[in-house]
Amino acid sequence: MTHRVDERRRFRLIASLSAVAVVAVGTATVALAAKDGEPAPVRAFVSIDEVAANVVNPKVQQGGTSGMFTVDCGTNENGKFSADNPVAQPGLKHGAQHVHDFVGNLSISADSTDESLEDSDTTCTNGDRSSYFWPVVRINPKANVSSSGSSPDKLKETGGGEIACPSVKDRLPAVPQQARDEVNRNLELLDKQVTEASDRVARNENPGDPNFVNNAILGPLRSKRVATLDRIAIAIGRSAKKPNLTSLVECDLRFGHGGAGHGDHNQAPRKFSGQAQAQAQGGKDDSATPTIKCPSVRGELPGVPDQAVDEVDRNLALLDKQIAEANQRLVTTKGQGGPNFINNAILGPLKDKRLATLDRIAISIGRNAQRPQGLERLAPCGLNEDGNGGNNNGGADTPPPLAAPSGKDLELVGNNGKIVRPAQVKIEYRGNATSKVTAMPKFLKMITGDAKPTSRGPANARTTWTCGGFEDRLSDKYVICPNGSKVMRVHDFPGCWDGQNTDSANHRDHVAFPDKRSGACPKGFKAIPQLRISISYNIPKDVQEKGQYQLDAFPEENHNPFSDHNDFANVNSEQTMAQIVKCVNEGRRCR
């Protein structure tokens, strides 16, 4: 039995031991993680010399492809940090409970739509508007100074676990009048399903089985939501374009909301004082870029007459675009202007645009039905500081909002220390060993790795850690590198696509990894350019040896290095994707 296997089992054992304690606080709550998150212990670090070569590169066969297209999107020089995960948790502000580095798309947030992503600017030199994001790495001088690692005693009292699902009501298109009642019934059913699942979590029916919540609660909840969301889509589709609600299926347990109080995501957003704006803007490296927080419009509209559906949808998309443009401006003007710059140059103009757009929506509906009153109250926006926490479906049962990153080091929920800016980020689109690749569809979403291998199991987790010059081996532990060698993370994404879907209920089933030995895609999947993101860091040798660098993670993971992951949303233009495919299939090296 290798030391590496022992370490994985230790992390799983923590979940098993901690699942025993249960606390009920309004919503379903389970004590599973240390309140502040424990640092990864020294035994979670390994010298790269002790890691055997384990990377298998399948031999390129006749008909296979060996080309590579490299994209330069920078190293997050703009300081676009966020605890949002727009791929895995759309609509949940700060849902990751850890901070991500973002490169590429400048406007992306938890509230982004495909259309708003396409309208964004980008940090990529070739104009690629895709979004690439991953958890930051920090140096924490306090880690492993005294006793380290987690223990059952430390895991008994925590911020608790709550069922959290993406908001549905706030992400629907215009709902036709004929479908309004049926849609409302199913939205209420979504609330009921989450309440029932939360009650089962609170009862802790099988405390000895760490997989019980996943298999007996979250799994059935997913199946119920698939059916209910399909009924909503069918109801809308009878009179308008049928929406794709797949990305809103997946629910999860979340922990340690950071003490933020209950909030109403439709309350009038708070404008920032000069001091608060200065803190929000900060210096180049001293703060997270804030994001725009606007009241929901979709959830406030009545049933829309058939004659007005298209016009209302166009204006709802315009509202999304206006928010995306404001988010982008927050990134590109960070640190500029005086104390009132955000209010005067961004929030003020945004309010004026929203007033005009909301008026057009009201007029459009009013031509064939009673004109909705009071939409103007939804025009003012503010900045996301505390987040809205996401909803079960936009209904009454709203979990407490998750805390936003705070302070100059953007700390939250046990993720402490100074963020390390990558020294290099290499983004590569690669070939397939057995066949030509076909174009990725625009807006394809993909995840590699698993942010929660402790609580969900290791099936989707991937080894990613290595050192410069040692890329023939990857470790599931943090690595200690020789002098002159950079700490690296290598993230390979799925390279096979089902040919139909840009997302799936669990954000994984629509794509697959090639066979490790042959490189062939599974039956029913076709090869696409396989994305690889390699991230390098200059981390002092003594910090490595002391075990004082760590990955941002969910609180229950305690900085488990095996929880490393990366997310991607493809917003390449069709022309750029065609160039990528041509380059890869011709066996060339392109930029």
Provide a quick synopsis of the model.
By secondary structure, the chain is an alpha+beta fold. The protein has 10 helices and 23 strands. Residues 1-36, 146-160, 258-286 and 386-398 have low confidence and may be disordered.
Describe the structure.
- With 591 residues, the protein is of the alpha+beta class.
- It has two domains: 36-153 and 405-590, no CATH class; 274-383.
- It contains ten helices and 23 strands.
- The protein has helices at 3-18, 114-118, 177-203, 212-237, 274-281, 309-332, 341-366, 453-456, 541-545, 574-585, and strands spanning 45-47, 68-71, 81-82, 100-104, 131-135, 137-139, 161-164, 252-255, 292-293, 382-383, 418-420, 424-430, 445-449, 465-467, 478-480, 487-492, 496-497, 511-512, 526-527, 530-537, 549-551, 565-569, 589-590.
- Helix 6 runs antiparallel to helix 7 (341-366).
- Mean pLDDT is 84; it is low at 1-36, 146-160, 258-286 and 386-398.
- InterPro entries: DUF1996 (IPR018535).
- It comes from Lentzea aerocolonigenes (Lechevalieria aerocolonigenes).
- This is DUF1996 domain-containing protein.
- Residues 427-570 form the DUF1996 domain.
